[in-house]
Predict the 3D structure of the following.
Amino acid sequence: MRVSLLSVPGSPDRSNEDFAAASHDVVVLLDGAGTPPGIESGCSHGVAWYARQLGAQLLAEAGTAPRRPLADVLAVAIERVAAMHGDACDLTDPNTPSATVTVVRRTGDDLEYLVLADSVLVLDVLDGDPVAVTDDRLARTSRSLRAEMDALPTGSPEHTQARRAYAETLGSYRNTAGGFWVANTDPAAAAHAVTGSVPLDRLRAVALLSDGASRLVDRFRLTDWADALKILADDGPAGLIRRVRAAEDSDPRGERWPRGKASDDATAVYCVL
């Protein structure tokens, strides 16, 4: 695989809570679930630390145990990072750090994949239209919960307060039946990931996108997956994220595209197979 990636923080005064890394046959992308100011997580390390530790464990385990299913790999990684927290962290806190997970692994003649929560995997299929592999349970769960927040100007005090209330309510649906699933402290969440495989000879390339990068397509609707793949092929991840930032800058108060943050951490990984 030939891999290019870029990860850009949503704001210069906040840590980038995305993580992406690659080996010769495995690529991982995680999007840490940041909490609004005023909400405590019970963790002394923070979301960025969690995403980096889990991503590193995933990359290592997926590469050293190539026959182990990716869901099992993720479960092992979650368990290991939970043990790394130590006694200073309260892992029973409902806001303990969590992250979306997207993994691809080349195994023999196939490309295996796993997607958990709202990052996106886009398959550039040789004989057809691109295929977006998504886990839309978070989007379906949050749709009715975010109406008050989305009706307010992004960045206003009222929006900040509504975002905090939204985050607190959403937490009660995390890793529950009928809600949505993310990686945090419970290895059982891994069994709820979307998994599958595709023959390598059917693929030209794949793209792993955090929701801060995929929003050009799935939130802003300014292009489609075929055009997004063309941007990545021609201009790389920087070209895609540059277009995302231009769209965000054109709507800083979220009037055209209501959203929790005016600019989110954006990570794009493009893999030519």
About this structure: The chain has a mean pLDDT of 94. Strands lie at 2-8, 18-22, 26-32, 99-107, 110-116, 120-125, 131-133, 194-199, 203-209, 266-272.
